[in-house]
Every structure is written in C-alpha cells, then in structure tokens.
Protein 1
Amino acid sequence: MAKSSKNIQPTLKFNIKYAPAPESVSAASINEQYNLFINGKFEKPLSKKYFDTINPATEKKIASVAEAGAADVDKAVKAARAAYNGHWGKMPAKERAKYIFRIARMIQERAREFAIIESLDGGKPIRESRDIDIPLAANHFFYYAGWADKLNYAFPNRNVSPLGVAGQIIPWNFPLLMAAWKIAPALACGNTVVLKPAETTPLTALKLAELIQDCDLPPGVVNIITGAGETGAALVNHPDIDKIAFTGSTEVGKIIQRATANTNKKLTLELGGKAANIIFEDAPIDQAVEGIINGIYFNQGHVCCAGSRLFVQESVYKEVLQKLKDRIATLIVGNPLDKNTDVGAINSKQQLQTIQKYIAIGKKEGAEMFESSCALPNKGFFCRPTLFTNVAQSSRIAQEEIFGPVLAIQTFRTDDEVIEKANNTPYGLSAGVWTNKGSRIFNITTRLRAGVVWANTYNKFDPVSPFGGYKESGFGREGGLHGLNAYVK
Amino acid sequence: MPAVTAFLPDFRNTPQIDHVGVEERAARFTKRSIKTESKVEGLKLTLNMIDLTTLEGKDTDGKVKQLCYKAMHLHDAYPGLPTVAAICVYPSMVAVAKKALQGSNVKVAAVATAFPSGQSSRDVKLRDTKFAIDQGADEIDMVISRGKFLQGEYNFVFDEIAAIKEACGNARLKVILETGELVTYDNVRRASEIAMYAGADFIKTSTGKIQPAATMPVTLVMLEAIRDFYYRTGKKIAMKPAGGISKAKAALHYLVMVQETLGTDWLSNEWFRFGASSLANDVLMQLEKERTGVYQAANYFSID
C-alpha cells in the first residue's frame, strides 16, 4: 500500500480561461446518410437497416449509417475476392505502390476535414486529431507504399506472396489511424480488404472510402462496411476470408480466436492493456509528470497502451503527486472541437458508465480519489481527469482495463519489486520507464513483459516502429517491417 | 531583508532535466489559442510587465529621458493603456531616469556587478551595486560569475549573490544567469536554485548581449525551479525572461506558460517581467489592430 497522501493538495491556484476557439464544422462535408462501400461504389444495405452515429460531446445525431447484414458481408467479401483474383493480385508491385502513395497524399490534402470529423464523431480533442491521428495515418500509407515493391528486401531469400482477402475490424479510439494501420500493409503486400470500423465512429472510415473512390483505386480492393458486433461476427466467420486482423477488447479477441481456430484463417490480435508507467527517483521529474499526463489522459484514456498504472519510487512519491495534482488542475476539459481543449468527450454513454463503475469500485476499495475541479459541459459524455492513491496491487482498478482517464498510483522501493508488480497482470502491451540512468533503462526494459516499452517518454508512435502485445494483449505486430509479416505467406 | 535560507541548496533534491521533454512541453504552450477578449487582456498585461531597456555604451541623458517619457505614455492615442513596469539602464543613468519618472509608478532598474560579463572583483561589484542604490535604483539586475559556475565553484557564486543582496538593502534583486553561456538545462536549473537560495527576488535569463537569450524551454526550466522553491519554502520568486522576445504573440505564449506552470498568482508585474526594448511597439500595434480592425504602419508608433 502506498503512503498516505491525505495532506497533499494542489498548491498553486489556476484560473485558466481562454476565449473559445472552436474549429469550424462547416469545413467538413458530412452526408445525412451513408451506405456500404462495396466494389468501389456506395451501395444500399441488403439488410435495409441503418443506425445513427452521434456526437458524444452534444449527444446529437450526426448521420445515419448502413448496418451490414450477413448478405452484405458476403457481397463485400466476394467483391474483394474478385478484385484479388482479377487485377490487384497480378498488378506489378510498383503500380500498387502508386495507389497507396496517392491515398497518403490525399489524406494530407484533406487532413483538416478528417480531423474535424474525427473529433466530431469520436469526441477526441481537435489538437490530437489534427496533430497526431491524421498526420500519422497519412504517414502509415506513405511508409507502406514504400515497401510495396521492396518485399524481396523485407524478406530476403523468401519469395513471399499475399494472403488473399483480409477481414479487418477496428476500434473506436483511433478510427482513421487504425484503418491506416490495417489497410496500408495489407495493400502493400497485395491483399484486398474488407474493413469494419466501430459502430460509434464510422464516419472517417467512410470519408476514407470516398477518398479511395477519388483515388481511382480499382473496385473491390478496399471495401468498407459498417455495423456492430454482428457484422463483425459475420466477417470473422465468412469462409472465404484468408486473414483476420482485429484491434479491440480482449473479451472479443478471445471470441475471434475461438472462431478462427480450426480454420485456415491467419489471425493477428491487438487487445487491451494495463500498462505500468514507472518513475524512478533519478528521473527527470517534471518531464515524467508530463509523461504521466500524456500516458493516461491522452485521448481521454481511450488508449489500449495507456499508462494506467503508475509506479513511483517512494523517495519521490510526495513530489510527483504534488506536481501531478497541480498539472491536472491545468487540463481543460470540454468541447472536442475547441483548439484549447486537452481532454475531450468520452466516446459513448456506455463507456462513460463503465468508467463511472470503476471509479465507484475504486472508492469502495478504499483508494483515495482526486479529480480535477474543472467544470464539465451540461450536455454530452464527459469525465474529469481522475487519479487514485492508496491503491493495492489486488485492487480491481489496478488490475482491470478501465479505458478512461483514471490513473491508479502505487509506490515501490526496489527495481525487483517494481518489475514483479508491473508484470503481475494478464496484459502486456506497453510500459514506460523514467530514469536518467542508461544502464537501468536497459535492465528494466528487458525484464518487462510488454510489447512496447518507452523510456523517458510515453505514447509516441511512428510507422517504422512495430506495435503489439504479450500475453492477453494479443499477438502479431503492426507497423514497421514486422507489420508486413502479418500479410504475406 | 536577509536571505531566507543562507545555505547552498541540496542538489540531491534538484530534478534532472530531459531536454527533449522540456522542449516538447514548451512547444505545447504555443498551441493555446488566444483571441478577442483574452488577447486584449493579455496584451495589456504584457505592456505592464515590460522592463523597457536601453543598455548601450552610447546612451545619453537625452535618450534615457525620452525612454522614460515613453514608459509613462506608451501610446496616448489609445486611452487607458498601462505604463510599463520599469526602466532598465546602466547605473550612471539611474539619477536621470529617477528624476524623469518622478510621480509615476514606473520603477528604475539598474544593471550592476560589472554587467554584462561580470568579470571583476567582488569589491568592484559591490561598489557598483551601492552606487546604483545611492543614485536611487529600485531594482538591481546583477550577473552571476558564469566562469566560476561552470568550474563548479557554486559556493563562490552563492556567496557573491548573497553579498550583493545584502548591498541592495530594500531594492529587489534580479539575478541574471546568462543561460546562453550555461548551455545545458541542468546548469540553468542548478544556477536558478543557487540564486534563489542566496536571496534573489527575481531570476532572469539573460543580459541580452549573448545569443541565445531567453527561449521558452529555458524559461520553463526556471519557472519550474521557482515552483519547486515555492513548494519547499512557501516563498514566491519572480521571473524575468530577457532578450529575444520582440513579438506580441511570443509574449502571450510566455504568459500562457506562466499561468499553466505557476498559476494566476504570478500574473502581475510584481512576479513576472519581460526584459525587452522592441516588444512594446509590436504589442501596441496588435492592440490597435484589435481596436480598429486594421494594422497600422510602424511609423504610427514612436520608437522611443
């Protein structure tokens, strides 16, 4: 158990007010209704069903979106198969690359529109969608476009070939970026794709479909179908799929793994996490505090690699906590489209309820809660940046993934102790280490069972760097050279 | 006023600085969008925080008198503007400035201690300071001995600051670290601590004679040192970035940084200053633009 933190309160006074600076929604064109993108055309769903996607910051409907039934999924997979057997599978690699480069450049050209829609539909602050999500998505296409005609160098002494049709299911936390992570390497290796975005955030994927149409990508190479869990299940269970790539919860990941067992389908899973962010006493404390903030409050904590468990060496615990509380007091929570917003809206009502459930559990478990004192908008789904001290390793808030802006803090004394605690989790996606000692960085990072370990930084992404988990955080890697491996045989 | 803590700080409590992280954080402040009312408010505050400076060998009584008039009448075409915080001159000009500023709230700051290099004896530096005080200076801007600091002679630097502080009497002491010569953020942080523990009322980045002068990351490191000193002792120290801040927009970014690092209590000219000579006119130009909707040519604003 941690030392008592009762006497540590924010020390400084913050009364931060900036004039509202909202990004203009009129810069984005959004249709009232979206159909399924199959074989290069937007087609009405055979299911005849539509569902609404709402703005989580206002709870108002943005558009209605087609719900793909089993027959629609079948149609999309057939289109992808035809494209694979027809033109795309046989196209020279350097021609494929040109299309992927074209997609990348057009994402850059339409970056502002994508950023606005991403924030509108998903609730993330415009600063993040503008500076991180959209540029990174374009970078992924650029990066894999470069690989398309160099696969012989990526896999020396192997003559690799594509897998065929890839079914890809992506989550709601980084909608366009996850689409890029999935589509770019698949196309670079010569596969065709059926992609299903999450039901709460389908709009940027559908805008990507429009962009792909404008790119003259041959019909059927990328198909984008919308819907909820049932649509995803139909895609996973379709017999003519060669590969499933899924990013989402561990619970659903397990279902998919069961469903694809005993089939020829290749599978990669990128699932949940409960990352340890470890602050040693010799760390650059002020930058570490910034890293803690960036680790857990980035994208409202809707990040599978979020640093949701904080371990602070006991000799600097008081100092870190004091600085952390003062820093939290400066975070601006509010309208995701406002350029000054640091923490936007929780993605959905359901997710907000999950977060609130865990906050209640944390209090009940006897942990001490601190939340920022900022005002919240009256409408929409919002949650204050929150942290818990006096957390035990056995607390549920320290064991289970909350996927929200809630941090669980523990202290430690020795290297061995913190490694044992950090690894004591069914997950193993990511971790962070903060110390000024190079030797300690190498010692700790090699002993942490996590796919991505950041040293003296957190939540940094690059197309060149592979990303993926250990244990129940999944298998397979996305990004970098390793990302190609999932799409060739 | 004697120094509150007359001992060298324990550097084991001094955090290391990661330069990538601190530069990233400093860049984040520039992403805040400041428009309309908050912009006008910020610009007026900026004017009120300026130490209007002339530190040339060729300075004359006439030049200083002109600058003093400007300090009190920044732009009379715009009613209700504040005055600047202080005039910053060499000791030989203090009496002239003091007389010219009579009846106003504008303070007179004098650079002393063999400014800008600090390459003289302790005795000369003390007499330089006392001369400026005798002439009527309200504030003293001293330089630290960077050579000694870089050699690791922290006690020497500490004792020197403490001695000058004593010589200042009631005048507020600004300690110039000359961050451009200290090079690393770790050095800046350490020098800030020495200055604060030795009795500085202000810590100040630069003389303006060395490049680079004030930058946002360097100022952030110093603001964080001030915050940590406040955590430990409850005593507030003021901050003055100087040199290189000539645009209104940059000044607003600094205010954002102060507000989000130290809180609103530091947002007055008692606790934060800009050392600048050309900043005022750019701020005035922006204020006129907010008032009238159009930019006016530089010639509509007096140069000094």
Protein 2
Amino acid sequence: MPKDGIGASTKRREDLRFLTGKGRYTDDINLNGQLYVHFLRSDVAHATINGIDTSAAEGMPGVVRVFTAKDFEAVGGLPCGWQVTDKHGQPMQEPKHPILAEGKIRHVGEIVAAVVADSLEQARDAAEAIELDLTELPAVIDMKKAVADDSVKVHDDLTSNLCYDWGFVEENKAAVDEAFEKAAHVTTLELVNNRLVANPMEPRVAVGDYAAHNDESTLYTTSQNPHVIRLLMGAFVLGIPEHKLRVVAPDVGGGFGTKIFHYAEEAFCTFAAKQLKRPVKWTSTRSEAFMSDAHGRDHVTKIQLALDADNNFTALRTDTYANMGAYLSTFAPSVPTWLHGTLMAGNYRTPLIYVNVKAVFTNTVPVDAYRGAGRPEATYQLERCIDKAARELKVDPAELRRQNFIKPDQFPYATPVAVEYDTGNYHATLDKALELADVAGFDARAAESKARGKFRGLGISNYIEACGIAPSNLVGQLGARAGLYESATVRVNATGGIVVMTGSHSHGQGHETTFPQVIADMIGIDASQVEIVHGDTANTPMGMGTYGSRSLAVGGSAMFRATEKIIAKSKKIAAHIMEASESDIELKDGQFTVAGTDKSLAWGDVTLAAYVPHNYPLDQIEPGLEETAFYDPANFTYPSGTYICEVEVDEGTGKVEVQRFTAADDFGNVVNPMIVEGQVHGGVGQGIGQALLENCAYDADGQLLSASYMDYAMPRASDLPMITVDHSCQTPCTHNPLGVKGCGEAGAIGSPPALVNAVLDALNRNGHDVAHIDMPLSPSRVWSAMNK
Amino acid sequence: MKISMTVNGKTMSGEAEGRTLLSTFLREELGLTGTHIGCDTSQCGACTVHVDGKQVKSCTMFAAEADGATVATIEGMANSDGTLSKVQQAFQDHHGLQCGFCTPGMVMAATSLLEENPKPTEAEIRHHLEGNICRCTGYHNIVKAVLAASGQEVPAVAAE
C-alpha cells in the first residue's frame, strides 16, 4: 500500500504555490501589446435603444475602438445548452442572447457598448463619453406578474414571458390528484428559494489573443470547463473550428457553478483580439460580477404533501415558478427541471409525485446553476414541508422521516420521478447525525439558553442529490445538447513517472492531489510520481469539466479506465521480459511478479522497456505507454445524508446564531478525507449564508439593490460555527469503478432546510406559532414573524 | 509619478497615477500578483498586505501614500530558506485553503493577528478575520489553521 493512496488525507500539493503568491490566475496573465476593454453596462432594466453615439469616446486618448451590437451582426448569440420540452410536447421558447445588446436592453448590467483602449483607465474614461439614446420601458421583475396576460414582454418576438410549462411526470398527475383527495392529512407550504449570487472570490477575467501567422485564437478565461467554452464559442458564436481555437483556464479562484457558463465577455475578447490583432483583456470588478455572473436559485414554490392516517407519505405535488432572468444562460433550463423535479422523491418512499415548473423571463440577470443547482431547491421545499407536517401532526420530525425512508434493503430503488438510486442507507446517516449532534442533550442546552434569554431550536434535514453527471444517452433524451462523459490520458514516461491529462478542471477541489492518489493506489507507486495536467484545451483530451460533483465520479473513472489499460499493457511487456504467461503476472507495490516464482521486475524497468523496446513483443504490441479513456457513466450517483442544525434566537432582536452544526454524509468511498471534509465545510458555509444572510434583491423597476459586498451579505468568519462532519456511513456507488459519489454540493443542499427548521423549532417551542419564514432569516424577518 | 517602496526587503519602484491604488501598483507595476483583488468596496480583504508593519487592505491606499513605506506581501512571507512560515504551513496542514484566491489576504491577516495576539481564542480569530471573505472553506479550517499556528490545541470536530 503506497503512502498517499486512496483513503489518505494527503496534504495538497497545490497549496505550495497558493500560499506563497505563486498561483497563476487569469488576471495574472498579461500579454505583450495587450489592450483593455471596459464594458458600458446598462443602468436601466428595460429600454429601447434608439441610438448609441460613440464619436466622442472614439476621440478620447488611448482609445483603439468602440464596439456596439452592429459590429457583431455576423456573430451568433450565446447558445443555450439544454432544450426543455414542455408538458404539451412543445420546445421551450428560446430567445436570442446577443453578445452586446441589440435594439433593446433587458436587464441592468447588460453590455451596451465596449471601449478598447491602451489602458483600463483610458477605456473607462472614454466609456463615460458614450451617449445613449434610450426609451425606458416598464420592467417586469415578479414572476407571477410576468406570466399574466397583460404583462410587459421581455422579448417582443416570443409569445409571452413563459419559457416553458413543464409537467413531470405528466402521466402521473391524475393519480397524484386522486391520492390527495383520499389523504388523511395534507400539508401545504408556500415558500421562496431566494436568489443568490455565487460570488467566487476571483472575479471573472477574459484575455483574448490572436496569432495572424496561423490564424489561431486563444482565450484565457476563468472557467470550470475550458473545452465546453471552446465548443460553444467556437461552433456557435464565432465560427472558429476547434483546431484554431485554444481555451486556457489556469488556476481558477472558485466557481460554484457560475464559471461553467459561456459568457459574452469571453466571446467579445476573443473576437476583438482577432479584429484588432492585439490581445484584449477584461477583468470583472465585483460590481460587474453582481450584474453579469449568472445568478442562482430564485424559485417560488407551493408544495403539498399527502399522508395517510398512519403518517405514511402517499403523494407529493409541487408548483414552482423558476426565474430564468432576461436570457437563457448556458444550462439554465435544466436546473428547475431535470436537476430538480427528478429529486423530489428525496429519501422517501412517496409513491406518487407530480412536479410542475413554469420557467419565466424577467428583466433580471440570467439565472443558472449555483452549487447544487436544482437539488437545493428540491431538498429545501421537501424538508421544510415534512417538518411542517410533523408539527401539524405533533410527531417527532426525525421519526416521521425515518418512517418514510426508503429502506436499506430496497436498493436499487426506482422513484416515481424517473431515477433509480443505486445505493444508500438513510437510516444510518440519520442515526449517526442524531448521535454526533447529541440530540439527547438538547433539552439541557435549551434550558441553559433560556436562562440567558435565548430561544434554542433544533432542525433536521435529509438530502439526496444526483451527482456524477451524467449518462449521455439519457441526458440527450432529456434535451441536453452535449454529452456528459469525461476523459483522461495517462502518459507513463520512460522512467516511470506519470502525467495525467484530464478534462476535469479544479477550481479549488484539489485534483492535483487527489487524482494522483488513485493512480498511486492502482500501481503501488508514490503519488509524487504522478502529475496532473488540466485546464488547457491544447494539451488535454476533450472533456466536459467540473461541476455537479462529477470530477472524481466521472473524470476519476476515466482516469481509472485509462490506468487499467496501462496496467494491462505493462503486464504484457513484463510477461515478455520475464518469459512468463501474461495471466501469471501480478502488479503490487510497483513490482511485477510472476505467480509461483521469485521473478520480479520493477515498475520503472517495464516503463523503460516500453520506450526502449529492445527486448519487447513488437509483434504483438506497440512501443510506448500512453492510454486514453472516455468514461460515460451508466447512472447518476446519489450521495445522501442527514444534517442537524442547532440555533439560538434572540427574542428581542430576532437575531439567529448557529450554535452547532452536524453533517453526516454518505459519499460512498472517499479518496482524501481531508478534502472531502473541506468540501462539506464550504458547502455548509454557503448554505448557512443562503438561509441567514444572502439575498440578491431587485426593486420593482429592476434596479439591482444588492450589487456589492456593502449590500449583499456574504458569510464572514464570525457568522459561522465549527462544523462537525462525518462520512463514515458509506454505501459505495455500484456503477463506477471507484465507488465514489461526489461531495462538492452536499453541504449547500442539506443545510438551508436544517437551519430554517431549527429556527422555527426555536420559535414554536417558545410560544410563537410561526409556520414559515422565507430565507434569508434576517433579524427583521424573524422578529416580524414573532411579532405579527 | 515615480513611486518607491521597500517591498519584502527589496527597494522597488514604478510609475503610478495619482488615482492608482496600492493593490494595482503591486500587481501591475511591480508584478507581485500574489496580492489579489476580489472586490471594489474594500470588503473582501484578498488584497491585504502589511504597510510599515500594519495590516492594510491595499485597495484602501493610493500607491502614492505608500511612497517610501515598508511593505510586506505574500511573496515575502516564507522563511528565508524557502520553507513555509508557521502560518503558511498551518494553512497547508489544516487544509485552510481551497481555491487559493483569498489565501494571500488570509495569511497576511492571520500573521498580523498572531503578532498582536499570540494566543487568540476562536472568537478572537473569527473577529479578526471578519474583513477577509473566503467563499470556499466555511472558515472552519482557516480557524483551525490559525489556532494551530499559535501553538494552541485544535478542536477535533471532524471525524478525522
């Protein structure tokens, strides 16, 4: 067993550069002759553009060129990567998403013009000299108003603001309604899943470059998936074939989903660099990030749970309005549908489920996947509704959940919402969480809080998510315009060291550390002999990137398969050299041995032979030792867990403090426990942020009220508690070779309902009959609920 | 105008406009890209450096204001033999960083805290780091790292 193999909390090798200022993020890249672009963004939400006078700006010092939409007439719009079919079998309404606003402005922050100049200051100064002739139009922000017959339309060429009206599973609707009529109890809950901004600490950056001598464009960008950007931008926007377009995403400072998507600024910089024959750089300010990074969540939902007289769940139905914003971001249509409706069974045996989702255009920034993407929205409504049912029925919320869990012996379990959970043990994580959270000691802690004048409450949430995205043939049927495999090339060098070129791309997850652990384990060499290359389309195989907790489950599996091919070939070489039968060759601890003999060869002897093939089976195999695998998963993976949150509420101010937080997760096998725990901490931090602090707010005119860290409440060190995490309940995934499920999003999925449930528990235990409070649970909202 | 300062023990100089922020000057003029810019309202702390021994968000100062000052950035924090400083090493040991973008500011802020208060409590650490936003770690492992760097016991709250 090598040190730093699977299961070791190996320290991260990437830390050495990040801790010493040697990280290389996109903004650290400056090219010779580089120009800077400043985007003039709309400060109104909805307007007709009558004219744009750029003449004064063009004469300003240092200005090279001012671009408007007319410069992009020959260029495509930003493509949407997923087409949802509505409940009538019709495709969704799909408006053009221009690079620069064409004729109309549809949200605050939309790019109206772009100034390219020798310096950023010159570009910014000149942008102030651009004169816009606009006719302001009424904006539509509220989703229910947007779908009313008399609403202002965001897109004149669409029939309405309804992108799609999706029913799932439409054939089940009548049976679901019938079950509700027969129910002994129905719990109904209306709630809002608040709009968030992902806010990776590194703002987005794009640097476009063009080499005239070989007609090759290069884009350096802050992306979770450089190949996806190359494909979307090359094929659909700019018309550049892949072999003439290189996309590089170096160190990426966090993403959380918002760096998946193909953005206008990337296409602009690539296009302008070719036009001007000079590199063009854009670095987002944080204010720009708030009004141009795709937002997350923003669902308004009514959920109903039907129970029989024994408190068994008999049916569930939900109606959701999902905000798309003004345009369809890259994967926006999939989030409220296939990443949300398919998870509505949660951890439970509810036999009948119907999900309706109306996706709506509004004059707001486009909304797309943010950490969890659809699954937090599903979990939040379900776990809030179950908690409300428990209170109405006066039963223990943990026991109501346990009673309705899918049982450990029922896996694989086909849900009524079209997915099959391969493995799980929800009873185990519930028991583990109850134990670690010391629920038995809660009453004593509550009494102690009460003595200090604070209300203490405890909230539970279970979650299930679908990760390891995703089987290509399945998602193709569901409307995806891409495959969702992953790739890896494993290159073994002559002296035995290994370089893995992967289509996955880390933006904080530590792939450079964990991926080598897997190969070290398989071959029995030290992990330091393996190096990871990622983030550059020029030297990695076509990959789909990192999101949806897929890197290890899909990308790691591709690497596993490629390494299996390497091992198979190296055994053939070893068999030839040791004059033994291939079937007798064993590889362990970096040594090839022949079963039943004392013959052995070191890993390095065989790799050297592959490249110096003097004594080599050239009649059977080629020299060299390099293999590629593309792995397309057979199913999603289904991580699950139980989260328990304990809060104190101040009756006088409504302020909520998180006192204890416990996460018991089942991620299947774990490669690096330290990194897995860090992922949970971070996810929980974001979930607590959503539940307590964060809110992306618009006023009725479409002004973005929370466009800086002065107004958007990011969780700070003093807002969060220490977090108890456990991943000892492991039911390994049955269909990928590593048995891993993914851990990146769990924390953000499971924590908001646990926290809100805890606050409501605190209030209801202390004489305040409050059924629900919408997130974020700010002091004002909590105080108002207590004093209504 | 020409601006000179002692950065990480070396005299360095470059050109700056009156409006050039210290953060921009360090990155663009001196090429010290370890100092990061994460916001435009002096809220995130990614650009934290030390100026004349004091912890400063370098976006809150004009470069001209630092003319003649002694500045320390993340590039100068390692020990002279190239090994990581106590704070840097504790961040690696306790996985106090993920994407690494807030990390330089966090290390500078934590170093400054321990200079002022060698044995801070968990609450004091959280309070001191309020001006530095991390989106990846939930601060859990950052707090552990700072406790460890101060030589104090690190609470075992994870099933490690």
